[in-house]
What we know:
The chain has 7 helices and 18 strands. It has helices spanning 60-66, 101-112, 135-147, 163-174, 192-206, 232-248, 281-288; strands spanning 2-9, 27-34, 49-52, 71-73, 88-89, 182-188, 210-217, 252-257, 328-330, 332-335, 345-348, 353-360, 366-375, 384-389, 396-401, 410-417, 423-430, 440-449.
Amino acid sequence: MQKIIISIFMIMAALTGCEGIYSGQEFKIYEHEEPEGSQLPEIPEIGKKGIGKTTKDSDWSSKVSKLKIHWHYTWGNNLSIKEPDNVDYVPMIWGKNSIDEAKVDDLKTLRDEGKINFLLGFNEPDGEKQSNMTVAEAIEIWPLLEEVGVPLGSPAVVGIDNEWLTEFMAQVDANGLRVDFICVHKYGGPNAQGFLNKLDEVYAKYGLPIWITEFGVGDWKATTLEEHKYTPEQVLAFMQELLPELEDRSYIHRYAWFPAEQDHIALKTSALWDAEGVLTPLGEFYANFEPNDLIGPGKDDLVGPDELNPNSIVVNGGFESGVLDPWQGFKNGVSEIEPYAGLYCGNIRKKDGSLYQVVEVEPGATYEITFYGQWAEYSENTFNVVVKEETGDKAILLKEPIEANENGWTKNQVTFTASQETQVRLVWYKGKLKPAFPPFYLDNVECVKVE
């Protein structure tokens, strides 16, 4: 191991290619252990304030822009064409199925083009409903993340620090691996000083810069919105006290408030936008605190290759509402386990089960269905996506085998032509077979009329 010093300086070309955004007069220097033979690029220093925001809402780009943040991540690793200019996009390897050699090559290309400068590690691997990994599994995969060749953040555990992260960092040292900064999450009461004290402890323990990739004020005992005990005024006071302290602590390199919705029982008063997408008083303060005044406007009108088509007749095709409606079926649900994009995906449970949605179609028109599927584990059998008339003779218009495996998301694309009926049912149904089907995940479902 050799000790190196990374100079973090401002250089616009490394961000978006647009000149004049960051002047480069200040340098941030910190030390960390680096394996022999590894060379990391020089990294631009930008503001600390960021946001984690998925790309499934049609107006996500404008929302990111209006927050005047300096950096943005999506819990995924696909750089969208809708990313506002002059923002540092930071990819994440969410879980064990999020990376392979092909993904490493893709990220290296983004690195070489100056489009990414950092990489975030696994999301809450100690959580059963999150990436759900053992330390041994994470350590086995970690060299692939290092191979991308940019400063690399640790897995972010459930909470600021725990036994999982302690063991992981011990194994990093024992195996000569690399972690360049510690990622943490924190959702507690509105006690700014208690939060800061815990951050100080984590820095003293690991001696590495810290990124707070999720934080907010949560009431986890509340079971209804009415029971939530923290007021918007309390949360705003917490943010007003905390953020200047995060800016003053040199070891805090970045932070990102978690943008919960107002209907989130535990986090409703931490919302940055109201139901109409207008900034709350909390959101206004966050936007105007240490703002990136050179952030570009939102690019909501563009359509990226991995984003839901606004012309799709499927409602909630990305399951990003967090609930199934208007999806129907049986033995199903919404899952947070490594979605294709965003925070959620659909789930058909073990053995038999289904997901379906009834949509309006134009008689005689041709439609293209696109969706992504993944098995929870190896399956000997497969099943079909079916399109059938909802009324009339209820004739089957399409029946095609689904392509999917347990190693990652597989894109499926099929077409059908509507009959004279105006409603059809799009069905993903797996029956009872031996051996039994494992759980199946479904995401980013679209059905678009072919012109």
